[in-house]
Amino acid sequence: MRELLRVSAPVDLGAIDPRSTPGLPEATAGEHRKGWAREQVALLGAGLGRRQEMLYATAKAAQERPGPADRPAGRVLLVLQAMDCGGKDGTIKRVAGAMNPLGLHIRSFGPPTPEELRHDFLWRVRRALPPPGYVGIFNRSHYEDVLVARVASLVPEAVWRARYDEINDFERELTDAGVTLVKVLLHISYAEQGARLLERLDDPRKHWKYNPSDIDARARWDDYQAAYAEALSRCATDAAPWFVVPADRKWYRDWAVAHLLKETFDTLALGYPAANFDLGRERERLRAGEAGAGGTGEMNGR
Amino acid sequence: MRELLRVSAPVDLGAIDPRSTPGLPEATAGEHRKGWAREQVALLGAGLGRRQEMLYATAKAAQERPGPADRPAGRVLLVLQAMDCGGKDGTIKRVAGAMNPLGLHIRSFGPPTPEELRHDFLWRVRRALPPPGYVGIFNRSHYEDVLVARVASLVPEAVWRARYDEINDFERELTDAGVTLVKVLLHISYAEQGARLLERLDDPRKHWKYNPSDIDARARWDDYQAAYAEALSRCATDAAPWFVVPADRKWYRDWAVAHLLKETFDTLALGYPAANFDLGRERERLRAGEAGAGGTGEMNGR
Hints:
The structure is a homodimer.
Chain A: H1 2-5, E1 6-7, H2 33-64, E2 75-82, H3 88-95, E3 104-108, H4 114-117, H5 123-126, E4 135-139, H6 148-151, H7 157-176, E5 179-187, H8 190-202, H9 213-219, H10 221-235, E6 242-246, H11 250-266, H12 279-292
Parallel strand pairs in A: 2-4, 2-5, 3-4, 5-6
Antiparallel strand pairs in A: 1-6
Helix pairs in contact in A: 2-11, 3-11
Protein name (chains A, B): Polyphosphate:nucleotide phosphotransferase, PPK2 family
Domain Polyphosphate kinase-2-related (chains A, B): 75-264
GO molecular function, one term (chains A, B): phosphotransferase activity, phosphate group as acceptor
């Protein structure tokens, strides 16, 4: 999937069908493929949970035995971008929901606060990075600063244009520090966005997700697609690749993102760290505690 | 379960059997009750996820329409305490894992850092509170400051003794600000702790969880139980009750904590907020966008 979904400059989003399902095994064609994909996400999730635990355990061991390390302790950072209704929240619920919440570090980026605006655009992003051993997820990210900032003219063109290089430098710094970046655009169609917005209007349980400004952004669809295409073209680097996941079909989207994460973990060659204590001695100490506690079967009320 | 598991002063932990299963329906007796409980946790988890979404949606709506509110926006804070191997991590994995990770705010408290030590013991706790709309989970908490701080004599007795009142004041402040506290002691036996420590020594995949200092704390078991009993006795208030969950059986522990959370959500009378926009007008705007986009079925590549 990393090969199939990865994009490189020049990125032409119009050539990627949001309803397509690249990489889906052919044998799963037909009606039951949706159920198949949902099952796979659960299975992949269990595997992701194990890998996440190894990542966490390795970072913890490194922290307890600091020293000259071959390479810095690992962390994984999934960056999710999409148009409104693109499925960022749903992807997090389904894919991250299959992992252990203790090892997740999820951060959402909204419009910058007054304090954030007083700093460089990467300031709030640096503060939101996952600690070593964690799987971070960015629900929107620093890419908004070359997307909405560009389309809505929040800053002059010279400012957002300079940000492509700044982002590449920043991401290079991250990967040098042991962060494995997985940048994903959930790619939906204009028609699908319209259908999902209508669903939010029709279902009282979804009104809270609707914002009238979504329609304003929708009116600028082509401008946003152009901004995305340029951002992906300029910032798809070897160190920090961009993946485009066709996202009109939610079950495919979840399966594809889970698969991307699994393949990413596989590149890390994870394992459990060796014990940093004397096993025999600790067994001895534990046994001594049993004896000292006054016999067997009497411990409950102790 | 809130009635059954709630404790009040004087708390006698020795009188609570860590292998007991209060509140478990009698019909589930026998071999299959473990499977039954696991299924129930999944079902309860789905319900918790819905309630969590309502909590989040309500807070979001309140934020968008600030004004004189009847009461502050809600948040729930689960405080988990236990002896080593008591099952805090496992409970979070199972119970929180059934909820939507986007709405969770999990914070673990380890030994205080030098910076944290330069501040009042509640400083780092205040910084870790969940924002409105979130379900927070404290993996250990400010109670460590009357537990390990007391048993290991990290501060003079006068200092930790004063903390009971300080904690009660702090928690009263939180509940006044709309935080619903659920404080849970996962209550395991000395024997069960020994078995779990041995498991960590025997399984190379679990070595990373083992710390030789666990045996030192185990040697002070009675002192810790006394410290817990006094902390619960002094800080079980009407505003912020303490619950003791027998935790030798993991499946019961998870079921009981999920149930406590569900009953806690039920006291909040949650619902979805009303739309804060004109539904008819928004449908109109959405329809106009469809027309302006140049016909039907042509949107994919747009």
